[in-house]
């Protein structure tokens, strides 16, 4: 079972057993991880699930698609090279140990 570690703005970490095929966002919301809201339910229309993917995993996660890229440009104030919408990251065995950090605030 793959694990995802969520790093809060204060540095605290929550490591969650995830289900392959679920999104990083749905796993966070289901487990009450602070800092990931997911208001739109994963429809890529709110950016309240913005995360920073750890550099070690950035290449495996890959870049955002065009629509996600546009949403990040419009909805995120502190966008970084590893910014992603967690609703668009599907958990897989290849991503076991994935680390994502939540921003100081969501849109």
From TrEMBL:
Q: Which cofactor does it need?
A: [2Fe-2S] cluster
> Does the record carry Oxidoreductase as a key word?
no
User: What family is reported?
Assistant: Belongs to the adrenodoxin/putidaredoxin family.
Key words, A-Z: 2Fe-2S, Iron, Iron-sulfur, Metal-binding
Q: Where in this chain does the record put each 2Fe-2S ferredoxin-type domain?
A: 2-106
Q: Specify the protein name.
A: 2Fe-2S iron-sulfur cluster-binding protein
Q: Does the keyword Iron-sulfur apply?
A: yes
CDD domains (UniProt xref) = fer2
Organism of provenance: Kibdelosporangium philippinense
For this protein, the record's Gene3D superfamilies field holds: 3.10.20.30
């Amino acid at each position: 079972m793959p694990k995802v570690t969520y790093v809060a703005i204060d540095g605290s970490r929550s490591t969650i057993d995830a289900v392959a095929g679920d999104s990083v966002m749905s796993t966070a919301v289901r487990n009450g991880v602070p800092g990931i809201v997911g208001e739109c339910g994963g429809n890529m229309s709110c950016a309240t699930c913005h995360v920073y993917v750890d550099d070690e995993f950035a290449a495996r996660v890959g870049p955002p698609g065009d629509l996600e890229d546009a949403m990040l440009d419009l909805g995120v104030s502190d966008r970084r090279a590893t910014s992603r919408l967690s609703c668009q990251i599907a958990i897989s065995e290849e991503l076991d140990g994935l680390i994502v950090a939540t921003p100081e605030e969501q849109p």
